[in-house]
TrEMBL record:
Residues 355-366 have a biased composition (Polar residues). The chain crosses the membrane at residues 42-65. The lineage of its organism: Eukaryota, Fungi, Dikarya, Ascomycota, Saccharomycotina. Residues 352-373 are annotated as: Disordered. InterPro entries: Glyco_trans_25 (IPR002654). It holds the Pfam family Glyco_transf_25. It comes from Lipomyces tetrasporus. This is Glycosyl transferase family 25 domain-containing protein. Keywords: Membrane, Transmembrane, Transmembrane helix. Residues 108-203 form the Glycosyl transferase family domain. The keyword Membrane applies.
Length: 451
């Protein structure tokens, strides 16, 4: 009996021992798997971190050194100074019309606020603007509307009429070129230098189809081989089939990459300007899809062609869109400068546009010029203008004329008064000294009496 119990008890011990070993093996296996999972997670995390660091490094390297990996297709030689004749003609950009025959700006008659700003800018920066009234499309007589005008809303029709009036102004004048601006533009404070450099490049334009004529060499600072010269577009896209047609030049007044609208950065990159060259270079390319008519120059031949194709023959879209169609059809010829030389001045409100209604998130007046802004300019003319005209008169007066106790007194009277004050102070000092001496004597007498 005892032996059977002993055997049974021994069997139970063996069974428990086996179960314990199995549990021990399972636990060891679980710990090993856990450690392996942890090591695998750590390795995965390290791999991800290394991949992110590598990606960031490659991205930064590409941005910083893309100009070394992708050299510029062509850059105007800046080491050799331009010829005297070129410099002489380019210096016309220092005049009040920037070397064009004239400068006109379009503004609705009721926008006296914008007209004030434009005339102020002209005065501060030595420019001469001609005001061309904007047109309310609803007031255009039915008979005067162009063919297919029904595609346009009333504000778009008025915009078309105002630009055609600007082209007519050129044809009615003796100008060969006209710079046309809208009334909300901003530009670089060094505008004369910016356009003088552009003139130098246009005189050596390597993408023009014909050599400059003798007349152009003598009297056309920007050449005359174009109908429109875009210097204030909102955006643009180049002809993908002819990205090789580009004239690149260095400009010290180009905005930094950070201050350049992202679309224009992409446009520059499409022309081979990458990395550190963004923020140093401008590109001149054949116009293909320039949106907006914020700032552009037009030649006499260009005005004739545009009036022919966008008035005489009719119009089928907003004026900037119809000009794009004519450019892509090859009916007119143009160049586009990127980044543009003019930018829109914004105050974030209904005042920003005379062609659009008030959005739900806009106030009627916006933030005003004090908080206005523009982009893609190195030194905003509007912001710099505030500094130029800044004055602290009384601070200047204080430096030149030190403050006097009585401004009504003459210098001689002030001198006499100062002398009297000095004598009075001396007398007071003598009295104080005598009183101190008297107190010392009295103290000495009291001390003797006490002794």
């Amino acid at each position: 009996m005892a032996s059977r119990v002993s055997e049974k008890f021994s069997g139970l011990l063996d069974s428990a021992s086996v179960r314990y070993r199995r549990l021990e093996w399972a636990a060891s296996d679980a710990v090993a798997r856990l450690n392996w999972s942890r090591r695998r997670m750590v390795a995965t995390g390290v791999t991800i971190v290394l991949a992110l660091v590598s990606f960031a490094f490659l991205t930064i390297s590409y941005v910083m050194f893309a100009d070394l990996v992708h050299p510029l297709p062509y850059v105007m030689d800046t080491a050799t100074p331009p010829a005297p004749a070129t410099r002489r003609l380019a210096s016309h950009a220092q005049n009040e019309t920037l070397g064009f025959g004239g400068i006109a700006y379009l503004s609705m008659p009721y926008r006296s606020d914008r007209q004030d700003a434009m005339e102020l800018l002209a005065s501060v920066y030595g420019l001469n603007f001609t005001y061309i009234p904007g047109v309310d499309g609803a007031t255009i007589a039915e008979k005067a509307k162009p063919l297919h005008h029904y595609w346009l809303r009333a504000p778009e029709l008025g915009c078309w009429r105002a630009h055609v009036d600007a082209w007519r102004y050129l044809l009615e004048s003796d100008f060969e070129t006209l710079l046309v601006l809208e009334d909300d533009v901003d530009f670089d404070a060094n505008v004369h230098d910016v356009f003088e450099l552009l003139s130098t490049q246009m005189q050596h334009n390597r993408i023009r189809t014909t050599p400059p004529t003798e007349h152009e060499r003598k009297a056309a600072p920007y050449g005359l081989d174009w109908d429109v010269l875009y210097v204030g577009q909102c955006s643009d896209h180049s002809n993908n089939d002819r990205l090789d047609l580009v004239h690149i030049y260095e400009d010290p007044n180009v905005p930094s990459r950070r201050d350049t609208f992202s679309h224009f950065v992409g446009q520059l990159e499409s022309h081979g300007i990458r990395g550190r060259n963004v923020g140093k270079m401008r590109a001149i390319a054949p116009s293909w899809s320039p949106v907006c008519t914020m700032g552009y120059a037009i030649s006499r031949k260009g005005a004739e062609r545009l009036i022919l194709d966008l008035s005489y023959r009719g119009i089928t879209a907003a004026i900037d869109i119809d000009i794009i169609r004519k450019l892509q059809q090859g009916i007119i010829r143009g160049y586009t400068v990127t980044p543009p030389l003019f930018s829109a001045w914004r105050v974030d409100g209904a005042k920003d546009s005379d062609n659009q209604g008030l959005e739900n998130d806009q106030t009627a007046l916006g933030s005003g010029n004090r908080r206005g802004y523009s982009h893609s300019l190195k030194k905003s003319a509007r912001k710099e203008m505030v500094k130029i005209l800044g004055l602290d008169n009384w601070d200047d007066v204080a430096h030149v004329f030190p403050e006097r106790p009585n401004p009504t007194m003459t210098a001689e009277q002030e001198a006499e008064e100062a002398e009297e004050v000095r004598k009075a102070e001396m007398e007071k000092a003598q009295i104080d000294e005598a009183w101190i001496k008297r107190k010392q004597e009295m103290a000495k007498v009291m001390e003797e009496w006490g002794g």
